[in-house]
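User: Good morning. I'm curious how 6-O-phosphono-alpha-D-glucopyranose would be positioned relative to this chain. Could you predict the structure with it bound?
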Amino acid sequence: MCGIVAYIGDLDPKEVLIEGLKRLEYRGYDSAGVAVHDGDSVAVYKMAGRIADLERRLSQVKLGGSLGIGHTRWATHGEPNDINAHPHPDYHNKVFVVHNGIIENYLAIKKELEKRGVRFRSETDTEVISNLIALNYTGDLTEAVIRAAELMEGTFGIAVIHKDEPKKLVLARRGSPLIVGIKDGCFFGTSDVAAILPHTRDVIYLEDNDIATLTPDGYKIISRGAKTVTRLLQRIEWSLEDAQLNGYPHYMLKEIYEQPEAIFNAMRGRIDIMEGVPKLGGIVPVWEELKNCKSIILLGCGTSFYAALAGKYIFESLTNLDVDAELASEFRYRRMSFLPNTFVVALSQSGETADTLAAMREAKRKGARLLGIVNVVASSIAREAGAGIYNHAGPEIGVASTKIYTSQLVILTLLALLLGRHQTLSLTDGVRILRELETLPSKAREVLKKADLIETIAQRYHRYNNWLFLGRKYNYPTALEGALKLKEVSYIHAEGYAAGEMKHGPIALINPEMPTVAIITRDEIYEKMINNIQEVKSRRGPVIAVCNEGDEKVKEMVDEVIEVPETLPFLSPILNVIPLQLLAYHCARFLGRDIDKPRNLAKSVTVE
Ligand code: G6P
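Assistant: Good morning! Here's the predicted structure, ligand included:
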């Protein structure tokens, strides 16, 4: 949510900032801006709209110097317009700030500053930060940021420059990610490594309350109490290519097609077929407690929550544990009480979702142990958890999550299987499940071969305004996720429902104008789903079925059929969701939507 890129060094700052912002645009895209210091003065260009608009504007101006900050915004305080866009100068145009996060006490600070003669131009909380820093400035920007940070409540990742210090860039973080990039005398600041990957892979992840000062001669990080601290220099493993389109028209489509590989990568090196157990290095530090745990709570937001819900069915299939799936945004405010030795497992692609992080902290405070299933290495959730399993799925850039969902389900299966093997599951069961998992990449490839058929179905149905997605048991979460995908990228109203609940309400909506997507797999509740499909058909509702290959019974009943290979019932959501992702993608394409940057959404929601 919002993106920061900042730079000091010999390269052209305008180029570095614009290139970086383009790579961050998926994080926020309602307005953007840069401030560049040419050695004497600071020039600010900012506007509502996309980075391409800003780039066009900047191509008409010459900006020199070696220092600058840039931002792409997803509005929280104040509508997206030119004035509310970042960077925000202070009242006297000395301090310039770009900011991710929310300053919760900004109104109180604003009132105080107004009493002292400051006049505000925007409706943002960020403008309070630049003025607070300016008021605390006595000749050293770092000192001023330290003092201002003490007064601010809430979350922030900020990059700051000062007109009188043309060779200094200051970064500060609390609860919003910030990374320092390093390359022979050039230094970068960013909220997401994708922005600086063309320049460097050597990075430092700042921790909460860190303040980093970058100059052409080096960098210094201080933490709470103004102590100089050393942070680990890390090397980014994935390449620039991973973060580019590589011929695909959209990241969403590219990432849908990356699923066979993402599924494979989630298990790579993690399978001991002889023993019928997964090997999960990241949980070794907590293994003694984990193997004796009685209760697990799976936690997430958005698609990660639906993965958690699917995980509940997987855990129920493979373990004797007491398992629940919870929405992090609800869970964080609940009155929590845990059985002894409860593990809270947080699922998150970005590793930065504010509600998930807050829920973990609350659970920890109340005695739960934490684990993370996270894609972004060294992200806040990964660090808060302290132990867990990485997806290793490469960057996911399309706002609608696709490959991480299937990857999360594979990892949940590995974790459940590991625990199950320490409970009642036999060696034969373990081997059978692992062997089936190993077939999933090629089965996912088979599903992707149905893309043309799915495109045709989307062409027929994309003008229908209301859709219902039905599934039961393992595929109830698939129905929820299918409906979410369609909503997110095509803006078509869709509801995901547990098929058994249909007659308690949604059946009232069924008519020839409302397509139902039915997910039906040959499992123990197959016949129940057949009944639900009948109920829709007898009310003349069109039905698109996702069923197993060769299911003649379903074929005869419904209007459209997408066949997927058979697998174990609790693994079927991994294959069944793929056609739904493609259906959403193609409906959105036929409707001319901005698929990778759907309106009002953000990839990483770092505010509550
Ligand atoms: C946002 C994204 C969703 C994502 C959710 C959780 O809403 O648009 O695609 O599922 O955040 O994100 P996380 O990074 O925690 O998985």
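The chain has a mean pLDDT of 94. Residues 301-304, 348-350, 353, 356, 399-401, 601, 603-605 surround 6-O-phosphono-alpha-D-glucopyranose (CB under 6 Å).
Let me know if you'd like a different ligand tried.
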